[in-house]
Amino acid sequence: MQTQHTAFPCDMLVAAGILVTQDDDRRILSDAALVVTDGRIAAIGPADALAKAYAPRETLDLSGCLVLPGLVNTHGHAAMTLFRGLCDDAPLSVWLSEHIWPAEARLDAAAVSLGTRLACAEMLATGTTCFCDAYLYVDAIADAVEEAGMRAVISQGVFEIENAGFKTVDAALNAAGALTDRLAGHDRLRPAIFPHAVYTCSAKTLTRCADFARSQNVLLSTHAAETARENEDCLQANGARVIPYLNELGLLGQNTLLAHGVALDAADIGILAATGTSVAHCPKSNMKLGSGIAPVAALREAGVTVALGTDGAASNNTLNLISEMQTAALLQKVAACDPTLLAAEAALDMATRDGAAAIGWPELGRLTVGGPADLCALDMSRPQLTPAFDPVSDAVYAANGGEVACTMVAGKVLYRNGAFPGFDYPALVAAFKETAARLTRPGA
Ligand SMILES: [Zn+2]
Protein backbone atom coordinates (compact mmCIF):
# COMPACT_ATOMS: atom_id res chain seq x y z
CA MET A 1 0.00 0.00 0.00
CA GLN A 2 1.34 3.38 -1.00
CA THR A 3 0.67 6.12 1.50
CA GLN A 4 3.16 8.78 0.56
CA HIS A 5 4.17 10.14 -2.84
CA THR A 6 7.66 11.36 -3.52
CA ALA A 7 7.81 14.00 -6.21
CA PHE A 8 10.39 13.34 -8.95
CA PRO A 9 12.97 16.05 -9.44
CA CYS A 10 13.09 17.71 -12.87
CA ASP A 11 14.59 20.83 -14.43
CA MET A 12 11.40 22.60 -15.39
CA LEU A 13 7.64 22.28 -15.30
CA VAL A 14 5.94 24.17 -18.14
CA ALA A 15 2.22 24.90 -17.81
CA ALA A 16 0.50 25.15 -21.22
CA GLY A 17 -3.03 26.53 -21.67
CA ILE A 18 -3.46 24.59 -24.91
CA LEU A 19 -0.78 22.17 -26.09
CA VAL A 20 -0.72 21.25 -29.78
CA THR A 21 1.63 18.26 -29.72
CA GLN A 22 1.86 17.48 -33.45
CA ASP A 23 2.54 13.89 -32.36
CA ASP A 24 1.44 10.96 -34.56
CA ASP A 25 -2.11 11.22 -33.17
CA ARG A 26 -2.12 15.05 -33.45
CA ARG A 27 -3.21 15.26 -29.80
CA ILE A 28 -4.30 18.68 -28.58
CA LEU A 29 -4.45 18.97 -24.77
CA SER A 30 -6.00 21.68 -22.59
CA ASP A 31 -4.65 22.70 -19.17
CA ALA A 32 -1.60 20.60 -19.87
CA ALA A 33 2.00 20.63 -18.71
CA LEU A 34 5.39 19.51 -19.97
CA VAL A 35 8.16 18.23 -17.76
CA VAL A 36 11.64 19.10 -19.00
CA THR A 37 14.89 17.46 -17.94
CA ASP A 38 18.27 17.71 -19.66
CA GLY A 39 16.73 19.61 -22.58
CA ARG A 40 14.23 16.86 -23.31
CA ILE A 41 10.58 16.25 -22.50
CA ALA A 42 10.25 13.80 -19.61
CA ALA A 43 6.45 13.84 -19.38
CA ILE A 44 3.34 15.40 -20.94
CA GLY A 45 -0.02 15.37 -19.20
CA PRO A 46 -2.62 17.25 -17.17
CA ALA A 47 -1.12 20.27 -15.40
CA ASP A 48 -2.51 19.43 -11.96
CA ALA A 49 -1.32 15.81 -12.00
CA LEU A 50 2.20 16.69 -13.19
CA ALA A 51 2.46 19.52 -10.64
CA LYS A 52 1.87 16.93 -7.92
CA ALA A 53 4.17 14.30 -9.37
CA TYR A 54 7.23 16.48 -10.06
CA ALA A 55 9.45 18.76 -8.03
CA PRO A 56 10.84 21.19 -10.64
CA ARG A 57 13.85 23.42 -10.10
CA GLU A 58 12.06 26.04 -12.20
CA THR A 59 8.52 26.64 -13.46
CA LEU A 60 7.37 28.39 -16.61
CA ASP A 61 3.79 29.60 -16.71
CA LEU A 62 2.44 29.45 -20.26
CA SER A 63 -1.09 28.74 -19.02
CA GLY A 64 -2.40 31.68 -21.04
CA CYS A 65 -0.70 30.45 -24.20
CA LEU A 66 -1.20 28.20 -27.17
CA VAL A 67 1.94 26.06 -27.13
CA LEU A 68 3.25 24.58 -30.39
CA PRO A 69 6.36 22.61 -31.27
CA GLY A 70 9.20 24.93 -32.25
CA LEU A 71 8.86 25.80 -35.94
CA VAL A 72 11.37 24.50 -38.48
CA ASN A 73 12.48 26.91 -41.22
CA THR A 74 13.93 24.66 -43.94
CA HIS A 75 15.40 27.18 -46.35
CA GLY A 76 17.18 30.45 -45.85
CA HIS A 77 20.35 32.46 -45.87
CA ALA A 78 20.29 33.96 -42.39
CA ALA A 79 23.05 36.53 -42.84
CA MET A 80 21.12 38.13 -45.72
CA THR A 81 19.31 40.11 -43.03
CA LEU A 82 22.18 42.51 -43.82
CA PHE A 83 20.62 43.09 -47.26
CA ARG A 84 16.99 43.43 -46.19
CA GLY A 85 15.35 46.12 -48.30
CA LEU A 86 18.50 46.65 -50.38
CA CYS A 87 16.66 45.97 -53.63
CA ASP A 88 12.97 45.24 -53.96
CA ASP A 89 10.54 44.93 -56.86
CA ALA A 90 13.15 43.73 -59.40
CA PRO A 91 13.43 40.51 -61.47
CA LEU A 92 15.42 37.64 -59.89
CA SER A 93 18.30 37.93 -62.39
CA VAL A 94 18.68 41.71 -61.87
CA TRP A 95 18.20 41.40 -58.10
CA LEU A 96 20.97 38.78 -57.91
CA SER A 97 23.54 40.04 -60.39
CA GLU A 98 23.25 43.81 -59.88
CA HIS A 99 22.49 44.07 -56.18
CA ILE A 100 22.97 40.96 -54.06
CA TRP A 101 26.17 39.51 -55.56
CA PRO A 102 28.08 42.84 -55.52
CA ALA A 103 27.11 43.40 -51.87
CA GLU A 104 27.98 39.78 -51.00
CA ALA A 105 31.43 40.29 -52.53
CA ARG A 106 32.19 42.64 -49.61
CA LEU A 107 31.16 40.13 -46.93
CA ASP A 108 33.52 38.80 -44.30
CA ALA A 109 33.18 36.39 -41.38
CA ALA A 110 32.39 39.15 -38.85
CA ALA A 111 29.56 40.49 -41.02
CA VAL A 112 28.10 37.01 -41.56
CA SER A 113 28.20 36.45 -37.81
CA LEU A 114 26.24 39.65 -37.11
CA GLY A 115 23.73 38.95 -39.88
CA THR A 116 23.16 35.42 -38.61
CA ARG A 117 22.74 36.57 -35.00
CA LEU A 118 20.12 39.14 -35.98
CA ALA A 119 18.35 36.45 -38.02
CA CYS A 120 18.35 34.17 -34.97
CA ALA A 121 16.72 36.94 -32.93
CA GLU A 122 14.06 37.48 -35.58
CA MET A 123 13.32 33.76 -35.91
CA LEU A 124 13.16 33.20 -32.14
CA ALA A 125 10.76 36.13 -31.78
CA THR A 126 8.41 34.47 -34.27
CA GLY A 127 8.57 30.91 -32.94
CA THR A 128 11.28 29.25 -35.02
CA THR A 129 13.66 26.98 -33.10
CA CYS A 130 15.54 25.26 -35.93
CA PHE A 131 16.58 26.47 -39.37
CA CYS A 132 18.39 25.13 -42.39
CA ASP A 133 20.91 27.72 -43.48
CA ALA A 134 22.96 27.93 -46.66
CA TYR A 135 25.69 30.51 -47.00
CA LEU A 136 29.38 31.36 -46.80
CA TYR A 137 31.70 31.52 -43.78
CA VAL A 138 30.06 28.50 -42.17
CA ASP A 139 32.38 28.57 -39.17
CA ALA A 140 31.15 32.06 -38.28
CA ILE A 141 27.56 30.85 -38.76
CA ALA A 142 28.15 27.84 -36.49
CA ASP A 143 29.66 30.13 -33.81
CA ALA A 144 26.72 32.54 -34.05
CA VAL A 145 24.04 29.83 -33.84
CA GLU A 146 25.88 28.05 -31.06
CA GLU A 147 25.90 31.28 -29.07
CA ALA A 148 22.24 32.03 -29.88
CA GLY A 149 21.25 28.59 -28.55
CA MET A 150 19.16 27.61 -31.58
CA ARG A 151 19.31 24.46 -33.65
CA ALA A 152 20.46 24.62 -37.25
CA VAL A 153 21.53 22.61 -40.24
CA ILE A 154 24.43 24.66 -41.54
CA SER A 155 25.15 24.19 -45.22
CA GLN A 156 28.33 25.25 -46.97
CA GLY A 157 27.35 27.11 -50.13
CA VAL A 158 29.10 25.98 -53.33
CA PHE A 159 29.02 27.81 -56.66
CA GLU A 160 31.26 28.89 -59.47
CA ILE A 161 30.95 32.64 -59.45
CA GLU A 162 33.43 34.96 -57.83
CA ASN A 163 32.66 35.38 -54.16
CA ALA A 164 34.14 36.52 -50.89
CA GLY A 165 33.99 33.18 -49.11
CA PHE A 166 36.17 30.87 -51.22
CA LYS A 167 38.24 30.92 -54.41
CA THR A 168 37.67 27.41 -55.76
CA VAL A 169 35.19 24.55 -55.51
CA ASP A 170 37.94 22.53 -53.84
CA ALA A 171 38.19 25.17 -51.11
CA ALA A 172 34.40 25.15 -50.60
CA LEU A 173 34.34 21.35 -50.34
CA ASN A 174 37.27 21.46 -47.91
CA ALA A 175 35.34 23.96 -45.77
CA ALA A 176 32.32 21.63 -45.87
CA GLY A 177 34.55 18.75 -44.75
CA ALA A 178 36.03 20.78 -41.91
CA LEU A 179 32.54 21.83 -40.77
CA THR A 180 31.41 18.19 -40.84
CA ASP A 181 34.36 17.24 -38.61
CA ARG A 182 33.70 20.16 -36.28
CA LEU A 183 30.01 19.40 -35.81
CA ALA A 184 30.34 15.62 -35.38
CA GLY A 185 28.19 14.64 -32.38
CA HIS A 186 26.93 18.20 -31.77
CA ASP A 187 23.43 18.10 -30.28
CA ARG A 188 22.11 21.32 -31.85
CA LEU A 189 24.11 21.88 -35.04
CA ARG A 190 24.41 19.65 -38.11
CA PRO A 191 26.49 20.10 -41.26
CA ALA A 192 25.20 20.03 -44.84
CA ILE A 193 26.19 20.94 -48.38
CA PHE A 194 24.46 23.44 -50.65
CA PRO A 195 25.36 23.61 -54.34
CA HIS A 196 23.63 26.93 -55.12
CA ALA A 197 21.73 26.03 -58.34
CA VAL A 198 22.09 24.35 -61.75
CA TYR A 199 22.85 27.77 -63.28
CA THR A 200 25.76 28.55 -60.93
CA CYS A 201 27.33 25.07 -60.67
CA SER A 202 28.74 22.87 -63.45
CA ALA A 203 27.65 19.25 -63.76
CA LYS A 204 30.99 18.24 -62.30
CA THR A 205 30.52 20.45 -59.25
CA LEU A 206 26.96 19.24 -58.70
CA THR A 207 28.18 15.63 -58.86
CA ARG A 208 31.03 16.33 -56.45
CA CYS A 209 28.54 17.85 -53.96
CA ALA A 210 26.30 14.77 -54.29
CA ASP A 211 29.32 12.50 -53.68
CA PHE A 212 30.23 14.59 -50.63
CA ALA A 213 26.70 14.36 -49.19
CA ARG A 214 26.59 10.60 -49.72
CA SER A 215 30.04 9.91 -48.29
CA GLN A 216 29.50 12.15 -45.25
CA ASN A 217 25.82 11.22 -44.85
CA VAL A 218 24.73 14.87 -44.73
CA LEU A 219 21.78 16.74 -46.21
CA LEU A 220 22.19 18.20 -49.69
CA SER A 221 20.00 21.13 -50.57
CA THR A 222 19.93 23.32 -53.65
CA HIS A 223 17.74 25.93 -55.32
CA ALA A 224 15.77 24.09 -58.00
CA ALA A 225 13.07 24.97 -60.53
CA GLU A 226 12.51 28.37 -58.95
CA THR A 227 11.29 29.83 -62.24
CA ALA A 228 10.10 28.62 -65.66
CA ARG A 229 13.12 30.41 -67.14
CA GLU A 230 15.45 28.15 -65.13
CA ASN A 231 13.93 25.10 -66.86
CA GLU A 232 14.23 26.70 -70.31
CA ASP A 233 17.88 27.61 -69.73
CA CYS A 234 18.66 24.16 -68.32
CA LEU A 235 17.00 22.49 -71.31
CA GLN A 236 19.11 24.57 -73.66
CA ALA A 237 22.39 24.12 -71.76
CA ASN A 238 22.02 20.52 -70.62
CA GLY A 239 19.28 18.98 -72.76
CA ALA A 240 16.93 18.41 -69.83
CA ARG A 241 14.67 20.27 -67.43
CA VAL A 242 16.07 20.93 -63.96
CA ILE A 243 14.56 17.95 -62.13
CA PRO A 244 15.53 15.22 -64.65
CA TYR A 245 18.97 16.86 -64.95
CA LEU A 246 19.55 16.74 -61.18
CA ASN A 247 18.28 13.16 -61.14
CA GLU A 248 20.63 12.14 -63.96
CA LEU A 249 23.56 13.64 -62.00
CA GLY A 250 22.60 11.66 -58.87
CA LEU A 251 21.53 14.62 -56.72
CA LEU A 252 18.02 13.47 -55.86
CA GLY A 253 17.09 11.15 -52.98
CA GLN A 254 15.95 11.01 -49.38
CA ASN A 255 18.84 13.16 -48.21
CA THR A 256 18.03 15.94 -50.67
CA LEU A 257 15.92 19.04 -50.10
CA LEU A 258 15.08 21.26 -53.07
CA ALA A 259 14.32 24.89 -52.32
CA HIS A 260 11.39 26.41 -54.25
CA GLY A 261 10.21 23.72 -56.70
CA VAL A 262 7.91 26.23 -58.38
CA ALA A 263 8.20 25.29 -62.08
CA LEU A 264 7.42 21.57 -61.85
CA ASP A 265 5.42 19.50 -64.34
CA ALA A 266 3.75 16.13 -63.67
CA ALA A 267 6.87 14.23 -64.75
CA ASP A 268 9.06 16.30 -62.39
CA ILE A 269 6.69 15.61 -59.50
CA GLY A 270 6.79 11.89 -60.34
CA ILE A 271 10.61 11.94 -60.16
CA LEU A 272 10.60 13.72 -56.80
CA ALA A 273 8.08 11.21 -55.38
CA ALA A 274 9.97 8.19 -56.75
CA THR A 275 13.31 9.36 -55.38
CA GLY A 276 11.99 10.48 -51.97
CA THR A 277 13.27 14.03 -52.53
CA SER A 278 11.75 16.77 -50.33
CA VAL A 279 10.81 20.34 -51.26
CA ALA A 280 11.22 23.53 -49.21
CA HIS A 281 8.34 25.75 -50.27
CA CYS A 282 9.10 29.47 -49.89
CA PRO A 283 5.80 31.14 -50.81
CA LYS A 284 6.58 34.74 -49.89
CA SER A 285 9.94 34.77 -51.66
CA ASN A 286 8.30 33.23 -54.75
CA MET A 287 5.54 35.82 -54.66
CA LYS A 288 7.87 38.77 -54.14
CA LEU A 289 10.24 37.75 -56.94
CA GLY A 290 7.27 36.94 -59.19
CA SER A 291 8.52 33.38 -59.61
CA GLY A 292 5.14 31.67 -59.57
CA ILE A 293 3.16 29.33 -57.33
CA ALA A 294 4.65 25.97 -56.36
CA PRO A 295 2.27 23.03 -56.91
CA VAL A 296 2.27 22.19 -53.19
CA ALA A 297 -1.08 20.41 -53.14
CA ALA A 298 -0.05 18.21 -56.10
CA LEU A 299 3.34 17.45 -54.53
CA ARG A 300 1.74 16.41 -51.23
CA GLU A 301 -0.85 14.35 -53.13
CA ALA A 302 2.01 12.53 -54.87
CA GLY A 303 3.61 11.75 -51.50
CA VAL A 304 6.44 14.31 -51.63
CA THR A 305 7.39 15.80 -48.26
CA VAL A 306 6.89 19.57 -48.55
CA ALA A 307 8.33 21.82 -45.86
CA LEU A 308 8.36 25.59 -45.46
CA GLY A 309 11.15 28.11 -45.78
CA THR A 310 11.42 31.85 -45.60
CA ASP A 311 14.43 32.14 -47.94
CA GLY A 312 16.73 35.08 -47.16
CA ALA A 313 15.51 38.40 -45.76
CA ALA A 314 16.50 40.15 -49.00
CA SER A 315 13.71 38.39 -50.92
CA ASN A 316 10.93 38.02 -48.39
CA ASN A 317 11.61 40.34 -46.35
CA THR A 318 10.98 38.62 -43.01
CA LEU A 319 12.00 35.35 -41.39
CA ASN A 320 8.57 34.74 -39.90
CA LEU A 321 7.41 31.16 -40.39
CA ILE A 322 3.96 31.85 -38.94
CA SER A 323 3.33 34.32 -41.74
CA GLU A 324 4.75 31.76 -44.19
CA MET A 325 2.23 29.08 -43.04
CA GLN A 326 -0.65 31.43 -43.66
CA THR A 327 0.67 32.51 -47.06
CA ALA A 328 1.25 28.91 -48.14
CA ALA A 329 -2.31 27.88 -47.27
CA LEU A 330 -3.93 30.91 -48.90
CA LEU A 331 -1.81 30.69 -52.04
CA GLN A 332 -2.77 27.08 -52.85
CA LYS A 333 -6.44 27.93 -52.46
CA VAL A 334 -6.39 30.98 -54.72
CA ALA A 335 -4.19 29.27 -57.32
CA ALA A 336 -6.84 26.60 -57.92
CA CYS A 337 -9.91 28.56 -56.74
CA ASP A 338 -10.40 25.70 -54.26
CA PRO A 339 -10.71 26.55 -50.54
CA THR A 340 -10.27 22.90 -49.53
CA LEU A 341 -6.62 22.80 -50.64
CA LEU A 342 -3.85 22.91 -48.03
CA ALA A 343 -5.95 22.97 -44.87
CA ALA A 344 -4.67 24.57 -41.66
CA GLU A 345 -3.38 21.26 -40.29
CA ALA A 346 -1.39 20.62 -43.46
CA ALA A 347 0.20 24.07 -43.24
CA LEU A 348 1.12 23.50 -39.59
CA ASP A 349 2.57 20.09 -40.48
CA MET A 350 4.75 21.76 -43.12
CA ALA A 351 6.12 24.20 -40.52
CA THR A 352 6.72 21.50 -37.92
CA ARG A 353 6.93 17.73 -38.44
CA ASP A 354 7.26 17.77 -42.23
CA GLY A 355 9.99 20.39 -41.97
CA ALA A 356 11.80 18.19 -39.48
CA ALA A 357 11.46 15.18 -41.80
CA ALA A 358 12.70 17.21 -44.78
CA ILE A 359 15.96 18.11 -43.04
CA GLY A 360 16.45 14.55 -41.76
CA TRP A 361 15.84 15.45 -38.11
CA PRO A 362 12.47 13.78 -37.49
CA GLU A 363 12.42 14.08 -33.69
CA LEU A 364 11.94 17.85 -34.12
CA GLY A 365 8.64 19.51 -35.04
CA ARG A 366 6.61 17.58 -32.47
CA LEU A 367 6.24 17.54 -28.70
CA THR A 368 6.61 13.97 -27.46
CA VAL A 369 7.99 12.28 -24.36
CA GLY A 370 11.69 11.67 -24.90
CA GLY A 371 11.88 14.29 -27.66
CA PRO A 372 13.66 17.65 -27.55
CA ALA A 373 12.05 20.43 -25.49
CA ASP A 374 11.77 22.87 -28.41
CA LEU A 375 8.58 24.92 -28.38
CA CYS A 376 6.96 28.25 -29.01
CA ALA A 377 4.01 29.79 -27.21
CA LEU A 378 1.42 32.24 -28.59
CA ASP A 379 -0.27 34.63 -26.17
CA MET A 380 -3.97 33.75 -26.35
CA SER A 381 -5.03 37.02 -24.73
CA ARG A 382 -4.48 38.80 -28.06
CA PRO A 383 -7.75 39.75 -29.80
CA GLN A 384 -6.85 37.86 -32.97
CA LEU A 385 -6.53 34.60 -31.02
CA THR A 386 -9.94 34.99 -29.37
CA PRO A 387 -12.27 33.05 -28.86
CA ALA A 388 -9.94 30.12 -29.64
CA PHE A 389 -12.36 27.63 -31.17
CA ASP A 390 -9.63 25.83 -33.06
CA PRO A 391 -5.99 26.31 -32.05
CA VAL A 392 -4.59 25.02 -35.34
CA SER A 393 -6.79 27.37 -37.33
CA ASP A 394 -5.74 30.24 -35.04
CA ALA A 395 -2.03 29.46 -35.44
CA VAL A 396 -2.29 29.35 -39.24
CA TYR A 397 -4.99 31.86 -40.18
CA ALA A 398 -5.18 34.34 -37.28
CA ALA A 399 -1.69 34.63 -35.82
CA ASN A 400 0.85 37.02 -37.32
CA GLY A 401 3.92 36.05 -35.28
CA GLY A 402 3.68 39.02 -32.94
CA GLU A 403 1.81 36.85 -30.43
CA VAL A 404 4.89 34.74 -29.69
CA ALA A 405 5.46 35.14 -25.94
CA CYS A 406 8.08 32.46 -25.42
CA THR A 407 10.45 30.35 -27.51
CA MET A 408 12.43 27.49 -26.01
CA VAL A 409 15.20 25.35 -27.51
CA ALA A 410 16.54 22.26 -25.75
CA GLY A 411 14.79 23.30 -22.53
CA LYS A 412 16.26 26.82 -22.50
CA VAL A 413 14.10 29.90 -22.82
CA LEU A 414 15.71 31.98 -25.58
CA TYR A 415 12.92 34.50 -26.05
CA ARG A 416 10.39 35.70 -23.50
CA ASN A 417 7.97 38.63 -23.78
CA GLY A 418 10.11 40.71 -26.11
CA ALA A 419 13.47 39.98 -24.46
CA PHE A 420 16.36 37.71 -25.42
CA PRO A 421 17.94 36.33 -22.23
CA GLY A 422 21.01 35.09 -24.16
CA PHE A 423 21.72 38.22 -26.22
CA ASP A 424 22.65 41.83 -25.59
CA TYR A 425 20.10 42.79 -28.23
CA PRO A 426 20.70 46.60 -28.36
CA ALA A 427 24.45 46.04 -28.79
CA LEU A 428 23.83 43.48 -31.53
CA VAL A 429 21.54 45.85 -33.42
CA ALA A 430 24.03 48.73 -33.22
CA ALA A 431 26.88 46.60 -34.61
CA PHE A 432 24.61 45.06 -37.22
CA LYS A 433 23.43 48.43 -38.57
CA GLU A 434 26.96 49.72 -38.88
CA THR A 435 28.03 46.60 -40.81
CA ALA A 436 24.96 46.58 -43.06
CA ALA A 437 25.65 50.20 -44.04
CA ARG A 438 29.33 49.42 -44.80
CA LEU A 439 28.42 46.47 -47.04
CA THR A 440 25.65 48.09 -49.00
CA ARG A 441 26.92 51.67 -49.31
CA PRO A 442 30.66 51.38 -49.82
CA GLY A 443 32.37 54.74 -49.63
CA ALA A 444 29.31 56.40 -48.13
ZN1 LIG B 1 17.45 30.68 -51.24
TrEMBL record:
Question: Which InterPro entries does the record match to this protein?
Answer: Amidohydro-rel, Deaminase_MtaD/DadD, Metal-dep_hydrolase_composite, Metal_Hydrolase, MQNX/HUTI_composite_N, MTA/SAH_deaminase
Q: Name one Pfam family in it.
A: Amidohydro_1
The entry's substrate-binding residues are E104, H196, E226, D311
Any single GO molecular-function term of the entry would be:
5'-methylthioadenosine deaminase activity
What CDD domains does this protein's entry cite? ATZ_TRZ_like
Positions of the Amidohydrolase-related domain: 66-413
This protein's UniProt keywords = Hydrolase, Metal-binding, Zinc
Annotated residues for binding of Zn(2+): H75, H77, H223, D311
Cofactor (UniProt): Zn(2+)
> Would you say which domain of life the source belongs to?
Bacteria
Catalysed reaction equations from the record: S-methyl-5'-thioadenosine + H2O + H(+) = S-methyl-5'-thioinosine + NH4(+); S-adenosyl-L-homocysteine + H2O + H(+) = S-inosyl-L-homocysteine + NH4(+)
Provide the transmembrane region boundaries. Answer: none
Query: Which part of the chain is the Aminodeoxyfutalosine deaminase/Imidazolonepropionase-like composite domain?
Result: 32-54
The record's function comment reads: Catalyzes the deamination of 5-methylthioadenosine and S-adenosyl-L-homocysteine into 5-methylthioinosine and S-inosyl-L-homocysteine, respectively. Is also able to deaminate adenosine.
Name recorded for this polypeptide: 5-methylthioadenosine/S-adenosylhomocysteine deaminase
Give the species.
Solidesulfovibrio fructosivorans JJ]
Its encoding gene is what?
mtaD
